Predict the structure of Autotransporter strand-loop-strand O-heptosyltransferase.
Amino acid sequence: MPPASAIRPAEAQSGATPDAVDRVAKPRLPRPAEIPTQEGPHGLRFDFNDGCRVMLPDNGRAWRVRLSDLETGNVLFDIDLRSGHVNSTKRYFVPFRLEVWSQGEFLLGHDYDASEREVLIQFPVGTIGDVIGWMSYAAKFNELHRCRLTCALGEPLIPLFSAAYPDIAFVTHNSVRVERYYATYSVALFFDDADLVYQPCDFRQVGLHRTAAHILGVDTAERPPRVALSEDSRPIADPYVCIAVQATTQCKQWNNPDGWQSIVAFLKATGYRVICIDQKAESNHGDFRTRIPADAEDQTGDRPLPERARWLRHAAFFVGLSSGLSWLAWAVGTPVVLISGFTHPTNEFATPYRIINHHACNSCWNDVRHRFEHEDALWCPRLKGTPRQFECTRLITANHVETTLRSIPGFGNGVRPRSPPRASTVPTGQLTARDAPQGGAPLHALTANPPPPDAAGDAPLAIGALLTRPHGDVFRGGLAVGVTVGAGKLLDQAASEIAEGDRTVGAGDLAAALQNYKQSIAIVRHLTEADPDNAGFQRNLSVALNRIGAVLFVQRNLEGAQAAYSASLAIAQRLNTAHPTNVSFQRDLALYHALLADVVAAQGRHAEAFEHRRSNAALITQLANAAPTDPVLQKALATSYQNLGDAFVPTGNVDGALAVYQVSLSLTKRGLEASGQDPVWNQLYNTLLQKIRTAMLVQRRGTTPS
């Protein structure tokens, strides 16, 4: 039975507002319609605009209401009453089933289904970074439920998203017409929600942006939102870096007294212009005063967010704090050097350039024992009023930041370390027919200009992920056995070309990277002509082909990527036939099937993608069974089955997907138990649970997700 506060008979309300029973103070967001928006039989009404709500008229009939969770099978309410209002305790997304009887007659059975219905997701006003972090999860909700989604948010943010998400309506809160919505969800930071009414888990424990995924019931994997700019030209021709030194409270600032001046001087000495894009040039919090660094160029002021985004998009990188401009830089695809001590790194988006000093007091924001006080500009819950106040960032040194800056690929060359999302296309290299597998895609596709990016979809693989994703190992001639000195030197040269291509990819120069990879292929092709049976030469050829395929995949040249990956797969198949006991070649073959599956799936060829996923899973199973104590292979095995389940879904076989997901879930649970809650296993587990839930919802509806 629910708590009494969740059931509000009409005769007990006596003029009280719905807020009277809410123990958690909600943000200032529009209240739902006073009367539920959906009409049922005999005058009853219901909706999902503040949890599940049911209004039962006093018409002389006796009512019975049962409310269940479709995902868990739990009965949440089962109550008899004469009239009144029933409201679920949980106000975040739950796949509800509503059943109503009257005098023993079954009147209404309704399973939550937002498909083609009006849904509102509302965000607080006055925050920038939070909403940017949450927007992609709202888009995921729209994709999952295929609803007619409206997002209510602060007016300055609307120009960033309206053109990027044409299938979502963006309005201010004053424009919300609450009576039109089937369901409403409030995404915010609920500090005092001890009973977890408005969020299934405390946002401080899952990350500021991922709390939206939990509230909306979607996959927690982070992805930047899409941002569309009407003016996207480069503001200045010179290489430049953007910085932002201001924040709303002192704990968010970099409190090292010489930090910003030192870093600005360092960046200028390296050859960058330094542009400060804060709203204000100066701020004061008590005795603390923060000003724009003297040597930075002043672009502060009340400027529209799209203008800030334009500066950020073309910057080599951004150096900032745990504040809205860091989230905006992340959204437009610019590398972010994020300096913060009061938040734990899990609180923000992932960046390899996150700076925190774990030797100092830190992460109080994510400590559920401390409630952040917005009105206290000097909030420091552990050390306020002591000599150690704000040591979390005061003890972050300029040297620490300089070391991090030097680690950015391309630093000091005035080159962007990565391209913005859906980058413009560049010419590709040429390969000859000798590299193509029989029956594969034509290799002339590699020389075609890639098609324009699909404005409605994200690039399948971000540039920044290229170097972290495996595409095969590179062997150097100096370590090879059975080759001449000359051949070894050539192999070293080919490996160096691949390494240089990897570096230039990291610097965002795809044209140069493709030239490096082509040079490697030309060198190795010369070696294979002289010694066609040399497995090492063949393997390096496949590696270079994979690098080209990866770049073309990012550019959305799917035909070219498929040609490169197919050529690489053909080489791996020949090597496995010639060397059936070589474990490295078996791993290569499994990997190449996975790479090709990505491409053909993106082309909509789901049956082919499924076959490649099945081949990948079979090979990984064989390898993992032969090495049951290898943690890398065991994770690969769980991942391969999860990917195989994903490949089942677009073929319409949801039952098959669920069966394979369950196999992956069993492997993942075993890995969690053996690893002591390893974060990679945890991520696999959480993603799997979401996919299983989604597949079960699809299975109940009898539809196939797009």
In short: Residues 1-27, 414-468, 474-483 have pLDDT under 50 and may be disordered. The longest helix spans residues 679-701. The two ends are 38 Å apart (CA to CA).
